[in-house]
Amino acid sequence: FPVDRIRNFCIIAHIDHGKSTLADRLLEMTGAIAKTEKNKQVLDKLQVERERGITVKAQTASLFYNHEGQQYLLNLIDTPGHVDFSYEVSRSISACQGVLLIVDANQGIQAQTVANFYLAFEAQLTIIPVINKIDLKNADPERVESQIEKVFDIPREECIRISAKLGTNVDKVLQAVVNRIPPPQASTEDPFKALVFDSNFDHYRGVVANIAVFGGRVKKGDKIVSAHLGKAYEVNELGLLRPDEHPTQKLFAGQVGYIIAGMKDVKEAQIGDTLYLQEQPVEALPGFKPAKAMVFAGMYPMDQSEYTGLRSAIERLTLNDSSVTVQRDSSLALGAGWRLGFLGLLHMEVFNQRLEQEYNASVIVTAPTVPYKAVLSSAKLIKEHGSGEITIVNPAQFPDRSVVSEYLEPMVLGTILTPDVYTGKIMTLCLNRRAVQKNMVYIDDQRVMMKYLFPLNEIVVDFYDLLKSLSSGYASFDYENAGYQAADLIKMDILLNGRPVEELTTVVHRERAYSTGKAMCERLKDSIPRQMFEIAIQAAIGSKVISKYTTDYGGDITRKMKLLKKQAEGKKKMRRIGNVEVPKDAFISVLKRK
Ligand code: GTP
Question: What are the residue boundaries of the Tr-type G domain, all occurrences included (predicted)?
Fold first, then answer.
């Protein structure tokens, strides 16, 4: 296929602005899927994606499109919209020359619109602004065009107004892809060179790598090498994604497709890696920054007899998601398990849900935490750790003040977009989260964009939910990492009947210890069902108890019997800590502030 008739592009947008719907329309119009199949969001394949209506894993499709008597090959890469998955967006972008930036005609520019725009802008891609949902009663495309002009400095004339739902003007989008996005700069004469921009693990065939061919050609039987590990493989199968795998004889420069070459582990086909022919070595492409885990939590089997099963489930799931980090861990109450690192809380929840749905595993997830750092002052400890600075991903191992000269916490720069009527409430919320305002501008006469520097631990669990609820769903939020800052942190223990529950240990800012401890105890009291005896719930710093509650016990005999029966039914979801039954979702729910 001639390179000058290839276009590689992705669709980026804030969540729910209609990426998947537009992708469906593009697939239908180019005949990749039938209109009659009642296909909805066919690119969202995972069960969690269908349930939550969000895209988690980017999917790719090659489309054939006839334009002015010539056939074009359009490679569309669908991307997820949520902040935790912006990593997927940046790798999709690196395989493209252009993007469709979708903005909802009613909601206008939102936080992820801004974040995604900058990813594309910094990669110097052609940006085609598309205003979607013009069929809505409250659609205001004029206003959105003004926002696009003001915030992104893109002339309003470049905007295309569409309804992905009804198909209105979707043909104009296809024309713009052909006319405005440049073809990839790649020549079939060059030695073969391809970028791995995604990879999946398939139980039967091993690793299926999605590649963008930057030069030359590759065919079945070729001997290829992955630059990162320097290992050689024989190509078993390759082809286009339309969006299902469509085997072909060869892949050429400029094309996007999949390749299977007997790799047993996604680590062998790392995202950002370069593939080349064994007889024609080339210099590796620059690749990507590895994704950095920002939220850590312990994961334990409900019952130690399920340990091996859970281990293999975690192994298989991480085969597909190289951004998850795994370390073995153990706890007195929960036994042997793991400490996993995720890109964010949603990433963690999705991982957990996939473990339960796809692998039928039953998991206890402990309170999530961010990676803190401590600068050690004790010579003995420095020697033990081989470094003066340690990273702590498990609050139970948080070192005592007496051996530390300084604690550091991870910071993020957050962007909030909101109708201006909510700015007061939002500023109060941010202040309560120890945030510092960096910037505030009006993007039109009613909408405000604010930037805040937040400690990550203040937004990890529940910030987003609160922001949404106090703005009736109108405010949006996104963030990027902003390094570390010194902070006055302390470790807080939660005790049940005098016994510390390691899984509920948290690190808090000193100023916030009292209120956080009180709130955690209250919520724990509400989430522990009545048992046969009283339970004392305490929050403590060192040996000092800062908050204390006692639960009622079950009452008379008949009630006790009912209680026992009810508990037996709920058993699978309960976890015994000492002599107390704790619901398995309590670990996360006690951290959520009202
Ligand atoms: P994520 O994958 O979760 O990031 O969302 P998305 O951007 O892919 O959005 P999706 O295509 O799932 O659309 C979100 C909602 O908007 C769905 O309920 C769609 O039916 C609806 N929608 C999409 N396009 C249009 C449109 O042109 N008009 C109207 N009225 N609704 C639309």
Answer: 4-185
Comparing C-alpha atoms, which of 493, 500, 564, 575 is closest to residue 533?
A: 564
Number of other CB atoms surrounding residue 403 within 10 Å = 14
Record the pTM: 0.77
User: In this structure, what are the phi and psi dihedrals at residue 240, rounded to the nearest 5 degrees?
Assistant: -100, 160
**Whole-angstrom Cα distance, residue 148 to residue 114?**
10
Q: Residue 124 CA to chain centroid, in angstroms? A: 24
Query: What is the atom index within ligand 1 of the atom nearest the CA of 132?
Result: 27
Q: Whose CA is nearest to atom 15 of ligand 1?
A: 16
Residue 507 to residues 48, 405, 462, 566, 592, Cα–Cα distance (Å): 31, 17, 16, 34, 15
- Please give the pLDDT value at position 88: 57
- Which pLDDT belongs to residue 300? 87
How many residues in total does the chain contain?
Answer: 594
Q: Is 468 exposed, middle or buried (0-12, 13-18, 19+ CB in 10 A)?
A: middle
Within 6 A (CB) of ligand 1 lie 13, 15-21, 41, 53-55, 80-81, 132-133, 135-136, 163-165
pLDDT band at residue 81 using 50, 70 and 90 as cut-offs: very low
Read off the pLDDT of residues 182-240 as tens digits, 9 standing for 90 and up: 999 888 889 999 988 877 777 788 888 889 999 999 999 999 999 888 899 999 999 99
Q: How far apart are CA 430 and CA 418, in angstroms?
A: 14
> Rounded to the nearest 10 degrees, how much is the dihedral formed by the CA atoms of 176, 180, 186, 189?
80
Q: Whose CA is nearest to atom 13 of ligand 1?
A: 18
Separation of alpha carbons 486 and 167, rounded Å: 53
C-alpha neighbours within 13 Å on the C-beta side of residue 142 = 1
- DSSP summary character for residue 124: T
Residue 394 CA: distances (Å) to CA of 299, 331, 564: 12, 11, 34
Coil, strand, or helix at residue 414? strand
Which residues, other chains included, contact 485 with Cβ-Cβ below 8 Å and sequence gap of 6+? 408, 409, 411, 455
| SS3 category, 584 | coil
- Backbone φ and ψ for 568, nearest 5 degrees, come out as -60, -40
Q: What angle do CA 79, 592, 553 make, to 5 degrees?
A: 140
441, two tokens: 């501008």
pLDDT, tens digit, for every residue of 122-163? 889 999 999 999 999 999 999 999 999 999 999 999 999 999
Two tokens, residue 158: 């470049």
Structure tokens, 529: 């069902």
Please enumerate in sequence order all residues whose Cβ is within 8 A of that of 556, keeping only pairs 6 or more positions apart, or say none.
none
Is 210 or 577 the better-scoring residue by pLDDT? Answer: 210
Q: Return the best residue to mutate from 11, 14, 16 for the ligand 1 pocket (most ligand atoms within 8 A of CB).
A: 16
Cβ-count burial of 98 within 10 angstroms (0-12 exposed, 13-18 middle, 19+ buried)?
buried
Task: Kindly state the tokens that stand for 83.
Answer: 């902040």
Q: What angle do CA 78, 83, 84 make, to 5 degrees?
A: 90
Take residue 489 and report the two structure tokens written for it. Answer: 């942190």
Segments in 461-508 forming alpha helices (H): 463-470
SS3 call for 264? coil
User: What is the CA(163)–ligand 1 centre distance, in A?
Assistant: 10
Beta bridge partners of 575: 582
Name the token pair of 463: 């910030």
Annotated binding site for GTP: 13-20, 78-82, 132-135
